[in-house]
Write a structure and sequence with these properties.
Number of strands of chain B: 2
Distance between the termini of chain A: 47 Å
Number of domains of chain B: 2
Helix content of chain A: 55-70%
Largest sheet of chain A: 2 strands, antiparallel
Strand order of the largest sheet of chain A: 1-2
Radius of gyration of chain B: 22 Å
Radius of gyration of chain A: 24 Å
Strand content of chain B: under 5%
Number of domains of chain A: 2
Largest interface: A-B, 37 and 57 residues
Structural class of chain B: mainly alpha
Oligomer: heterodimer
Shape of chain A: elongated
Number of strands of chain A: 2
Mean pLDDT of chain B: 85
Distance between the termini of chain B: 55 Å
Strand order of the largest sheet of chain B: 1-2
Low-confidence stretches of chain A: 47-61
Order of helices and strands of chain B: HHHHEEHHHHHHHHHHHHHHHHHHH
Low-confidence stretches of chain B: none
Helix content of chain B: over 70%
Order of helices and strands of chain A: HEEHH
Shape of chain B: globular
Number of helices of chain A: 3
Largest sheet of chain B: 2 strands, antiparallel
Chain lengths: 115, 413
Amino acid sequence: MLHQVIMKSLYAYLLLAIISFFVAVVIKIIVSMFDRAAEKNESSPGGGVQAAFTPASSPVSANIRGIPAHHLVAIISAAQMVAGGRIVRIDEADENRSWTTIGRSQHLASHDIRR
Amino acid sequence: MDINMLDLFQGISTLVSSFHTQPEIAWARIFLMGLGCVLIYLGHKGVLEPLLMVPMGLGMSAVNAGVMFVPPSMNLPQQGDKGTLFLNPLISEGEKLTYILQVDFLQPIYIFTFSNGLIACLVFMGIGSLLDVGYVMRRPFESMFLAVCAELGTIVVYPLGVAIGLPEGAAAATSTIGGADGPMVLFSSLMLAPDIFVPITVVAYLYLGLTYGGYPYLIKLLVPKSIRGIPMPIEPPSRISPGQKMVFAIITCVLLCLLFPVAAPLFLSVFLGVLVREAGLKDFHTLFSNTVLYGATFFLGLVLGILCEAATIMNPVVFRLLVLGVTALTISAIGGIIGGYILYFYYGKKYNPLIGLAGVSCVPTCAKVAQKSANEANPECMILPQSLGSNVSGVITTAILAAILIAMVGPVK
């Protein structure tokens, strides 16, 4: 009986490994397909690459979700200077909630490693 | 008129009566009243998870204080003449259940959300809405490998449980504690061993405290400081879009439900949460990540505390489950660290093995524990993204393994 249970247990582990590998393959295929589609889109005529950053002196800066890229660079650099090594999160505010509610919600859902 | 003054204070009267008839129950009540207060304190101090320990602790203290003499309509014959107005988990059918549903204030919560696994599904919906599957998608093989290694506790404890005399279903359900996934343990015990549902859920949720409180010491024992502080390379910004994450959630959910229908409710719940998050359904996301998650967590903690009434859990089985549960969690952590070490050598000693510990699927606690331990050795070390990847994969592998065990051992008819 115990021998049978041990064999069952090992069989379950093997099955788990195989299915997990299968799931990992599926994930890889999905990610690869979308990467290829994104690359095709970027290389096709008219498919623009959204520049991550342009120099701050450039008269026309790229925007990231409506925020000028050089603004983001300045904010992140300032945060790093003041308290280096911290994770900075910049996100859109929810117009329907006050900033305190947003902050509390973010805190509760955050991965705060300094607890 | 002769009045027995003690009968006016039934909590004390039942305690005195128990000292005469069942002294072990009486002492257990006093111990559990104190333990409840200790759990609240430890939760408040952050040693244990406060979201669960605070309601659980107070529930535990209150239910063991509030024992009274009850009529036969509120108890099964073997339960005697003492009970509470909180809930009676042993009554499950017939007229007594209908009666008790109208009397005990938490009985409806227990019957309609615990017994059918709904509370586990609600918690999973909330967890899913907080999960960022992007971490898994960026490094799927590595994350899944570590998560599989971190399931070692389940594999070892299942035959161990049988060896010490548990029925196969009970051993399999108890072994799932090694996955450190409370909702999965709840569900497994409902399917495989409903008769030990109460003690197993009590033991299962203590994992939250064990992982946060005990794992750092295990890490110090197994991983030298120089290796704990190995920094992971900074990765380029992710190109995984919300659309890709949605496709991943849909395909994985349907595939896993197809393979393992016994765990389909849990797969649906967690991926529904992921889908709501990635689809940008803000109101649903707020609902799931706040109201649903915290509401379900609150009632889970409270009902678990109430279930820790002395007469309910004073059972030799509970002690065995506790030992097996702790063993499963410890071996799972060791398995995860072994997986981490395999990758450490595979990548030429440039991989932090603490990431393997995060494969134990207590999200995000184990990832936080891994990051905290790495920071203690090297303040500049950042392993949280990789840890979250294996942490999230742990949820998936725990669900898969629970489904495999339920399919192999068979649900109780």
